[in-house]
Amino acid sequence: MPIAALVGFHAFRLPLELVLHSWYRQGTLPIQMTYEACNLDILTGIAAVIAGLWLWRRGPSRPLVWAFNLLGTALLVNVATIAVLSSPVPFRYFTKEPAVLLAFHFPYGWIVPFCVGAALAGHVIVFRWLARPSA
Description:
Blueprint: H1 3-8, H2 13-25, H3 42-58, H4 62-86, H5 111-131
Helix pairs in contact: 2-3, 3-4, 4-5
């Protein structure tokens, strides 16, 4: 599979973050789970569109792929950390906001296995592409 497609795959995170933001506006999700506060994963979606198009038009660029994948992985770890620290656990950090309870309600609970799992798998696959000897 071309690297442009592997990077461009992460563009799904842009509309996902817009959905999360709309849930915040509806009062379903606390603000820290959106780009208005701590969750900057929307940048991964935007970067995926830009980098994917760049790679598709210009061909593979290992430095660009490294930069994209490191940024995307860091932002994924960031949002996962925020979600855990916002959930109803004893070590909850975001106590002034309501707890994140999406995982306990259908179909919202599918975000973790499908969206977070897909994002993580996508980054692992890109890291595997980067580990190959360059042509």
